[in-house]
Specification:
This protein is of the alpha/beta class. It contains 11 helices and 8 strands. It has an 8-stranded mixed beta sheet with strand order 1-2-4-3-5-6-7-8, with helices on both faces.
Length: 300
């Protein structure tokens, strides 16, 4: 890829802080090595799918607790975290196929997909494309419930560019993190510092392409009109004070509540819950409440 940053010889996966659990690797093709955490045992297997520009640390405050009663598998999607970096399409179908391959190779049974934000739309797409591989759905602030017209699409894609991510200042990075929270916990500062340091990785530009392609992927494969096809028992959680859903600039008249209800009402067997005083990155801001809702949903 022309212009690939070469500021250091370190790959991104070697610059990240240690994950809270041991990292395993799964080869899915000659070019994709998937990093994941795999802990716990139980009758059900929870697969955690992170959101846009995120990776496995998104789950560090819920993973350990839930792994006491369930087998928990948290994946770094290709292009993110410790997984391979490359010129991937980053479509929802591409990621759904990755999840399906992982389920098959690890021989996972009774799979509950737990997806956050873009990971929620990936979980929905996986369920639509591979219904036989999924038993239940847990969607945290899922993308895909809010719909966008062509003018919206142009506005969003003009904002998310590789150059804007490459050239983001430290202050812009901090501000972007703050938008994810109602009251940002102090421990998020370590993630901010890690994101700032990531810009020095030799494969950082490939990561930037994954983020931008992910934005296009969500817009190019909308799921709202197919939500009525989902028969799986589902839990949808939103932070009542989500600043990112809905898009405040494009849809000022919408609320998080209206977006959540519009999507949940389409699904055949869905519980919708809102967590008070909580923003978009709910599993980091209110992990105890998220754990409680998931346990109640799974009856354990």
């Amino acid at each position: 890829m022309p212009g690939l940053a070469q500021t250091t010889n370190l790959k991104m996966k070697n610059m990240l802080a240690p994950y809270p659990n041991q990292v395993s690797y799964l080869t899915l093709s000659d070019t994709i090595e998937l990093a994941y955490m795999d802990e716990g045992t139980g009758d059900e297997t929870l697969i955690f799918i992170h959101g846009l520009a995120s990776y496995n640390t998104a789950w560090e405050h819920v993973f350990g607790n839930l792994s006491k009663n369930y087998r928990c598998v948290a994946v770094d999607l290709p292009g993110y975290g410790r997984s391979s970096k490359g010129c991937y399409p980053s479509t929802m179908s591409f990621y759904a196929d990755i999840i399906a391959q992982m389920i098959k190779k690890l021989r996972l049974k009774n799979v509950v997909l737990v997806g956050h934000s873009m990971g929620g739309q990936i979980a929905i797409t996986t369920t639509l494309n591979y219904p036989e591989k999924v038993s239940k759905l847990v969607l945290l602030a899922p993308a895909g419930f809010e719909t966008f017209n062509e003018d919206d699409r142009k506005a969003i894609t003009s904002f998310y560019t590789v150059e804007s991510i490459l050239n983001a200042s430290d202050e812009q990075i901090r501000t972007n993190f703050k938008y994810n929270f109602y009251n940002m916990p102090a421990y998020i500062d370590k993630l901010i510092q890690e994101r700032i340091a990531m810009a020095e990785a030799s494969d950082f530009e490939l990561y930037c392409h994954s983020v931008v392609n992910g934005v296009h992927g969500m817009l190019d494969e909308p799921v709202f009109n197919r939500l009525k096809e989902i028969e799986k028992e589902s839990l949808v959680l939103y932070g009542a004070n989500d600043f990112l859903i809905p898009n405040k600039l494009l849809h000022p008249s919408l609320t998080t509540s209206s977006v959540g209800r519009s999507g949940a009402d389409q699904m055949q067997n869905c519980q919708l819950k809102f967590i008070d005083e909580c923003g978009h990155f709910m599993q980091l801001e209110k992990p105890a409440e998220v754990i409680s809702e998931i346990r109640h949903f799974l009856k354990n």
